[in-house]
Amino acid sequence: MEEHIMQTVITINAVIMALFFVCYSYQFFYVAVALLKRKKFTCRNENHRIAVLIAARNEENVIGQLLDSIHAQKNYPMDHVDIYVGADNCTDDTARVARERGAIVFERHDTVHVGKGYVLNEMLQRIKRPGRKHYDAYLVLDADNILDPNFISEIEKVYSSGYEIVTCYRNSKNYGDNWISAGYALWFLREAQYLMASRGYAVMGMSYRLVPEVTVAGQVQDVFASLHWLAEHGSEYGFDLSRVLLTGDSAGGHLTGLVACVQLNPDLQALYQVEPLPFAFTALAIAHGVCDVYRFRLFTPLLDRALTREYLHLMLGRPWRHSPLRGHVSFEDTAPGLPLPPILVIASQPDRYYAQSKRLIRYLDNSPFPHQVIYWSRQQSERATHVFEVGWWDWPESRDTNDRTLAFFDQVCRGDFP
Fold this sequence. Notes:
Layout: H1 2-24, H2 26-36, E1 50-56, H3 63-71, E2 81-88, H4 94-100, E3 104-108, H5 116-127, E4 137-142, H6 151-160, H7 179-196, H8 216-233, E5 244-249, H9 251-264, H10 266-272, E6 281-287, H11 301-316, H12 331-334, E7 343-348, H13 354-365, E8 371-376, H14 388-391, H15 396-414
Parallel strand pairs: 1-2, 1-4, 2-3, 5-6, 6-7, 7-8
């Protein structure tokens, strides 16, 4: 019977993989086009006059690095380049930092027309007023970008070839050394850029090795290694280690709760072979967390039991029943009796893992742990699926969720959380 169930699971996985392959197969065409039709722009620069436009809101921690990278450009006459920064409703020193690095700063305080589009439109209107300099091209950058030393020279070659609109190659900065860690890091970077970094928070995204390369112990060790790095270098990047907020989505939500418990329990530290951090967590946010590794409710009961058993083999090692980690992995295993900080749970009924969130909320409701819940029912939004607030950050539901998450963090940091 068990062999039959496992064969059914394998068949389902194969069908799903085949569907994904078919859906994404069109990309092979574009890969071929990119390789066979690649065009190199060898024409010389015509040294056009360029205006660099940067819309910024509370970007004092990163905009200086961008401006330094602009001033460090090679093979282009920088007297042909002017830098404009639109400081949009800033409550920090973005304008001062930009001026100190030679940018022309336009400050605006319009709380109705807020956002990058409004900022760029107003900047262009001011720049194009009679009597101002004439520019041949406009280069739009985000405040947290860093340019390659030859960026302007290379992109100007394309513009000189007759292309009126040019986009460029972009990549993340200093994230891992393999495709798995890079993929996870880019996901966290997406969340960081659109959820928190632009709102005055210093953000560090973490990646970790995946099963079956390591068990959950290896993943916890990876997270602790990242956080120990933060303890050593956080001050260099503007982090306030007296207020550290730990958050994660899905499996990362499970690790958020587990890492917080390990940090408070010397026995768990010995079990997971990690050293305690020199700082405490101020608050936790668990979004769509898969925190109960012993119970999955996705298919039929028989399939769920088979899936759970295979998952436990991957998480704990084979045979999982004899693993020393057994009984010390789920949030309900590790949390009792610990002085955990306030916890935010983000859950949505259309999430395929909603049963996991529901169980976590029920456990917290019957515990002494201070907590708050952001919940989306099917009636409120059918599309509020798994980790929707990160994957589709610009949806109204996502913006509302992310705003309420930051309001929770702000409340805890002020000491106002009940």
